[in-house]
Amino acid sequence: MEADHVRPAARAVRPSPREPILTSTAPAPHAGETPLAHVVFIAASAAMGGFLFGYDSAVINGAVTGIQQHFAVGPGETAQTVAAALLGSAVGAAVAGWLADRFGRIRIMQLAAVLFAISGVGSMFPPSIEVLAAWRVVGGIAIGMASVIAPAYIAEVSPAAYRGRLGSFQQLAIVLGISISQLANYALNQAAGGDSSGQLAGIQAWRWMLGVEAIPALVYGLMSLAIPESPRYLVASGREAKARRVLTEVEGPAADLDARISEIRSVLETEHRSRPRDLLGGRFGLLAIVWIGIGASVFQQFVGINVIFYYSSLLWQSVGINESNSLLISLSTSIINIIGTVIAMSLVDRVGRKPLALAGSAGMTVALAVASWAFSYRTGTGDTASIPNAQGAVALVAAHFFVLCFAFSWGVVVWVLLGEMFPNRIRALALGVAAAAQWLANWAITVSFPSLSDWNLSATYAVYAGFALLSIPFVAFCIRETRGRTLESMG
Question: Which fold has domain 3-14+29-271+280-485?
Answer without folding.
Answer: Growth Hormone; Chain: A; (1.20.1250)
